[in-house]
Automatic annotation (TrEMBL), chain A:
It is found in: Cell membrane. The lineage of its organism: Bacteria, Bacillati, Bacillota, Bacilli, Bacillales. GO terms for cellular component: plasma membrane. InterPro entries: AAA+_ATPase (IPR003593), ABC_transporter-like_ATP-bd (IPR003439), ABC_transporter-like_CS (IPR017871), P-loop_NTPase (IPR027417), Siderophore_ABC-ATPase (IPR051535). Residues 2-238 form the ABC transporter domain. This is Iron complex transport system ATP-binding protein.
Automatic annotation (TrEMBL), chain B:
It is found in: Cell membrane. Keywords: Cell membrane, Membrane, Transmembrane, Transmembrane helix, Transport. The chain crosses the membrane at residues 21-45, 71-91, 103-122, 128-147, 159-180, 200-219, 246-273, 285-302, 314-334. Pfam families: FecCD (PF01032). One of its GO terms (biological process) is siderophore-iron import into cell. GO terms for cellular component: plasma membrane. Belongs to the binding-protein-dependent transport system permease family. FecCD subfamily. Gene3D superfamilies: ABC transporter involved in vitamin B12 uptake, BtuC (1.10.3470.10). It comes from the Bacteria. It is a multi-pass membrane protein. This is Iron complex transport system permease protein. GO terms for molecular function: transmembrane transporter activity. InterPro entries: ABC_BtuC-like (IPR037294), ABC_transptr_permease_BtuC (IPR000522).
């Protein structure tokens, strides 16, 4: 589905991504975790072509994204960046209609099919009661769902989410995560997301990838990745790991760095 | 069933009613103000008199004043206002910044400098003044765009570079006026901005450019809307952000250049009209852009009518009048808006 070969990126001498080889399979939910500045978001931005890699290539369905037209990439891949404009004068429905842009271009009208897809995206994200509301009048969780609705109206095969739950309260966080799960289960969307909450990542993902200093340090199913060694080497904390119903989760115990304890 | 549902949501848009009311009201006011503008002046005419002045070509006084003097002036006021407000609206949309205006990022002063050079140093080439103003604006826009390029542009960098360029051009302008202080007299009215003494010649000079640019502006609405989603989102949807931003900046420059070439430096219209309308009908450019064009035309026609009749026999430059009344009105609107936010 998605393949990166020797992808590297350099922003400054202090920040770089080094030679990342990764294969993301169809239908997977993959979460990228790691400390601040580890390159998670940068990696998503490289995949989505928002920035170009210094070396290496990203392949989408076997095609190099560099060689594809932007609109063709947008038909297969949708991404929700971290920050959106909160001042947009659009209703939910108007925002979601933009998801059809890659398929229609700027000048043609929405077809009946487009309108059905827009309505589908609104229904899936449970925004039908809000579709004529202005974005500014929505709560943070509703607004986030509206942006997700726009992204899935692109009918992408792969959905990239950059910290979709940051700034949301806990119930809205779960709402977004459940939505992601549903999109994956019912509509077969491959999901790659950056998450800060490691327990949520472990609970909702098929696979965790841990980045630190621009390198992949761990890659595997949550039960394998969530271990004491990972928390020690990546986050420099001691943590207790628990298992319940086949899901792993952790509680932080203490910092390992001296001077703080 | 589906189609009906879609129609329903269009009708239920929270701004739907306001938009219709504002657009219709602007159109009616525009026609009224043009009519009134034809009627009043040092010599006032009745409606019947301007009617015959417009449509019966004879040697009467009405004909000469209405057809030869007032009508082209009203039309030019209309075009200048439409171009300025559309230019401002486009720039504000592209930059996602309510302060973006050809006057603020230096495009207008680029036109002003070129025109001043012609008037002061090469007065023999005065016929080329509109062309020079136009080129001045275009070159300034290209310089700003080039200087703000750093592997791509960003709205804030364009604005900052523009403000700096504006200051530099201002210093050139002051230097010119000091060096040629004996000839400044001829430049001042132009710098103050106004359409006194314009006629059919000027009208014919700009009308085709204006129509072309305004039609392009209508087609550019879709680009503005998608850019307003933010650079990243627009790129992710497969839109070529840099290309359409460049195209829109040039279009905005041309619109400003068309206005400046006949009216001199009329500020404020491009900044204030879209802003006030945005407060009234929201920021959807499918409505805001046409409304701004109508509002700009209305404002300049009205202001010109007042400027030439209120202090008869002295004529005030429209630019000064607009700044004098527009400034406080703008402050009032901002104040009111803050109140309404606070009460929410």
């Amino acid at each position: 589905m998605l393949l990166t070969k020797d992808v590297s990126f350099e922003h400054s001498s202090s920040f770089q991504l080094e030679s990342i080889d990764l294969h993301i399979k169809e239908g997977e939910i993959v979460s990228l975790i790691g400390p601040n500045g580890s390159g998670k978001s940068t990696f998503l931005r490289l995949i989505s072509r928002l920035i170009s890699p210094k070396t290496g290539e990203v392949f989408l369905d076997g095609q190099s994204v560099e060689s594809m037209k932007s609109q063709d990439v947008a038909k297969k891949l949708a991404m929700l960046p971290q920050m959106q404009d909160h001042e947009l004068d659009l209703t939910v429905a108007e925002l979601v209609e933009f998801g059809r842009y890659p398929h229609r271009g700027a000048y043609s009208k929405l077809t009946k099919e487009d309108e059905e897809i827009v309505q589908w995206a609104i229904d899936v994200t449970r925004l039908n009661d809000f579709k004529n509301r202005m974005l500014q009048s929505l709560s943070g969780g509703e607004r986030q769902r509206a942006w997700i609705a726009m992204a899935i109206a692109q009918r992408p095969k792969i959905l990239l989410l950059d910290e979709p739950t940051t700034f949301l309260d806990i119930s809205h966080q779960l709402e977004v995560m459940e939505l992601v799960k549903e999109l994956n289960a019912r509509f077969d969307m491959t999901v790659v997301m950056v998450l800060h909450d490691i327990n949520q990542a472990a609970r909702y993902s098929d696979r965790l990838i841990v980045l630190k200093k621009g390198k992949i340090q761990f890659d595997g199913i949550p039960q394998c990745v969530l271990c004491k060694e990972m928390f020690q080497s990546i986050f420099e904390i001691d943590a207790d790991i628990y298992q319940e119903n086949g899901k792993s989760f952790f509680t932080p115990i203490k910092l390992r760095k001296e001077g703080f304890v | 069933m589906k189609a009906a549902g879609v129609k329903e949501h269009k009708n239920a848009h929270p701004f739907a009613k306001k938009r219709t009311v504002v657009l219709v009201a602007l159109s009616i006011l525009l026609v009224l103000s043009c009519t009134v503008s034809l009627m009043i002046g040092p010599v006032s005419f009745s409606f019947n008199e301007i009617w015959s002045g417009l449509f019966y070509s004879d040697e009467s006084l009405e004909r000469r004043i209405v057809w030869e003097l007032r009508f082209p002036r009203v039309l030019i006021g209309l075009i200048v206002g439409m171009c300025l407000a559309t230019s401002g609206a486009i720039l504000q949309g592209v930059m996602k910044n309510p302060l973006a205006d050809p006057g603020i990022i230096g495009v207008s002063s680029g036109a002003g400098l070129a025109a001043t050079v012609i008037m002061i140093i090469f007065p023999a080439y005065i016929l080329f003044l509109p062309l020079a103003a136009f080129l001045g604006a275009l070159i300034t826009a290209l310089v700003i765009y080039t200087l703000s390029w750093k592997g791509g542009t960003s709205p804030i960098r364009i604005i900052l570079v523009g403000v700096a360029i504006n200051a530099i051009i201002g210093s050139f302008m002051s230097a010119l006026m000091l060096l040629y202080s004996d000839r400044v007299q001829s430049v001042l009215p132009w710098l103050a901005g106004g359409i006194a003494g314009v006629g059919w010649v000027q009208f014919e000079m700009i009308i085709y450019y204006a129509i072309a640019a305004l039609v392009f502006a209508l087609f550019s609405i879709k680009h503005i809307r998608i850019l307003r989603l933010g650079d990243e989102v627009a790129k992710l949807l497969g839109h070529n952000v840099e290309k359409s931003r460049f195209f829109l900046i040039i279009l905005s420059t041309l619109l400003a250049g068309i206005a400046v070439s006949v009216s001199g430096l009329i500020g404020f219209v491009g900044l204030v009209v879209p802003h006030i309308l945005r407060i009234m009908i929201g920021g959807d450019y499918r409505y805001l852009l046409p409304a701004s064009a109508l509002g700009g035309g209305l404002l300049v026609v009205l202001a010109d009518t007042v400027a030439r009749s209120a202090f008869n026999p002295i004529e005030l430059p429209v630019g000064i009048l607009l700044a004098f009344f527009g400034g406080p009105f703008f402050l009032y609107m901002i104040q009111r808006r803050r109140d309404s936010f606070a009460s929410n």
